[in-house]
Structure to design on (144 residues):
């Protein structure tokens, strides 16, 4: 079988893109799915309420040591987690204890409660959902 140069070039280009697609990177500028671990997850909503504007709340999960780091928008958060398939459980969550405005304190309490209640997660492109069974606890968006 003899391929024309243009067909050969197209086949080589498709093969070269395979490792990129397997890593979940974007191709041609299209957004790709984010990984649970190693991604900066910015809080979008918790307990059905939108995240407080002006102070970013986020989580980062590190595969090395299964450690959680982040902020509630007020205080820094840290702890550990267990991961297996789509199951996700957070251990004891520690935090600094600064006082902030009431809206941020309520967000912090809701986020800590959501983390403690989490039993599973869903990834949909660049969105992370923390869940307790079918109940949505918190939603995050990938990015900085």
């Amino acid at each position: 079988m003899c391929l024309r140069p243009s067909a050969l070039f197209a086949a080589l280009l498709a093969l070269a893109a395979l490792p990129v697609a397997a890593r979940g990177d974007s191709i041609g500028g299209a957004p790709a799915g984010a990984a649970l671990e190693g991604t900066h997850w910015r809080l979008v909503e918790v307990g059905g309420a939108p995240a407080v504007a002006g102070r970013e709340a986020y989580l980062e999960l590190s595969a090395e040591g299964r450690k959680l780091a982040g902020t509630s928008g007020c205080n820094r958060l840290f702890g550990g987690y267990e991961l297996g398939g789509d199951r996700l459980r957070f251990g004891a969550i520690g935090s600094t204890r600064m006082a902030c405005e009431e809206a941020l304190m309520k967000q912090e309490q809701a986020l800590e409660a959501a983390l403690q209640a989490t039993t599973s997660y869903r990834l949909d492109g660049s969105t992370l959902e923390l869940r307790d069974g079918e109940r949505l606890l918190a939603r995050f968006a990938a990015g900085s």
Notes: The chain has one domain: 36-142. The first strand starts at residue 40 and ends at 46.
